[in-house]
Design goal:
The complex is a heterodimer of chains A (276) and B (132). With 276 residues, chain A is of the alpha/beta class. Chain A contains nine helices and seven strands; from the N terminus they run αβαβαβαβαβαβααβα. Helices cover 38% and strands 12% of the residues of chain A. In chain A, helix 6 packs parallel to helix 8 and helix 8 runs parallel beside helix 9. Chain A is globular and about 45 Å long. The chains are: A alpha/beta (276), B mainly alpha (132).
């Protein structure tokens, strides 16, 4: 009887409740093709998901990750959400760190990397909480970074046969910053704004440091990583358009984003190379 | 410079310096941030009182009107103060960011440890009760 009481009081966090989804995102995620590859080769790997008011999508995202990469721990950084994002993520078995107020995508992401560094994780997968990123690519990206001994793998929505649809202005912005990043990195960077990335080793320290641009880490960050001598590779991934058209680059923020990105790229090139 | 504008400029500068002193005395303004205002007020006061200095500065910057020199000096000091504040705000923003991140991580660790302690104490209670 006491054992029963114990179980009632402290429900196991790894046993997720049934996922209840309200939006069109609720459609069944396709199961990974074939058996799930073993993740024994990826020790000390953490998935970091910054989330702000994603109560409608976070369960679906975590469910997908659990199906595709069940052995990997997931950390959700609740960026001061006013909805039940943190509670749902916790119920789904994720570790949840809640920031006391909304601090922005980069700050939330950096918090995850600081946590990873403090807890000895050597590989970090970062992905968005809105369901844009397909978790089936996590294993592919991890295998890519391990087998070829890379430092950073970026999931690109524009490589391969992907047909990602977005507004013409956003596409133009991505194209310009992609070209700039490609020019300064000396390699093709087709998707500089991708938030679907895997980082291994020293780049984790780099993200957790003051060098990291904490508001919009995009092309400037990739250029910075390249200048530090890290090996970066893009791999094709499928991305859905952001549900509810909820992009962080919208309205007046777009103007600030463009200004900030140009300025940040210039000062990144003018700065002394960071010590790695 | 017309005496009326000079008197107004002197009165404004005296009021500014006195008000900043009062704010510091009441601890509504820290000494660090009062410095820019006190230096600005004092220099503007000196410029308003000393006509020779005002003429010299006007010749130096090429101003045809003495009042323009006063406005120019005031604007310059305000720009310096604003830049200083922007630097301070940037530093404070970074500090708040780091505090927020560390606080959130510590909060997570605290809750995690509380859960571990609670679970262990319950397990100990169960085992002790089973023994009895």
């Amino acid at each position: 009887m006491l054992n029963k009481l114990l179980r009632q009081k402290l429900p196991s966090p790894t046993v997720p409740k049934k996922v209840i989804l309200e939006t069109s995102m609720a459609e069944e995620l396709p199961a990974p093709a074939g058996p799930i590859p073993s993740l024994i080769g990826f020790p000390k790997t953490l998935i970091v998901i910054p989330a702000f008011n994603e109560a409608k999508n976070i369960a679906k995202v975590l469910e997908g990750i659990r199906r595709c990469a069940p052995e990997l721990p997931v950390l959700v950084i609740d960026d001061g959400s006013s909805d039940a994002t943190a509670e749902i993520a916790g119920e789904q078995g994720a570790k949840v760190i809640s920031l006391p107020f909304n601090s922005g995508y980069g700050v939330a992401l950096q918090t995850g990397f600081i946590f990873a560094l403090k807890n000895g994780f050597t590989t970090v997968v970062q992905m968005d909480a809105d369901g844009q990123h397909d978790p089936r690519y996590i294993i592919d990206m991890l295998q890519e970074i391990q087998t070829d001994n890379l430092d950073v793998v970026i999931g690109s929505r524009f490589l391969g046969n992907n047909k990602y649809k977005t507004s013409i202005f956003k596409h133009l912005g991505m194209y310009i910053f992609g070209k700039l990043a490609s020019f300064f990195c000396g390699q093709t960077v087709s998707d500089p704004t991708s938030g679907f990335q895997v980082l291994k080793g020293k780049p984790i320290q780099f993200v957790a440091s003051d060098y990291y641009p904490p508001d919009y880490p995009d092309a400037d960050f990739i250029i910075m990583l390249h200048r530090c001598g890290f090996k970066i590779r893009e791999v094709p991934v499928t991305m859905q358009a952001s549900p509810n058209n909820k992009s962080m680059h919208r309205g007046h923020k777009t103007i600030y984003y463009v200004f900030k990105m140009f300025l940040s790229i210039i000062v990144t090139l003018l700065r002394q190379k960071p010590n790695t | 410079m017309p005496p009326r504008i000079r008197i107004i400029a002197i009165l404004i500068c005296i009021f500014l310096v006195a008000y900043v002193f009062e704010l510091v005395r009441r601890k509504h303004l820290s000494e660090e941030y009062s410095m820019g205002w006190l230096v600005t007020g004092t220099l503007m006061l000196i410029l308003s009182i000393s006509e020779d200095l005002l003429i010299w500065v006007s010749d130096l910057v090429g101003a045809t009107l003495f009042t323009s020199t006063l406005f120019f000096s005031g604007l310059l000091f305000l720009m310096i103060i604003c830049l200083h504040f922007s630097i301070r705000i940037s530093a404070l923003t970074n500090q708040v960011r780091k505090l927020t991140q560390n606080m959130a991580i510590l909060d997570y660790e605290k809750k995690h440890l509380e859960n571990v302690v609670e679970r262990r104490s319950l397990e100990e209670n169960v085992s002790s009760l089973e023994k009895t």
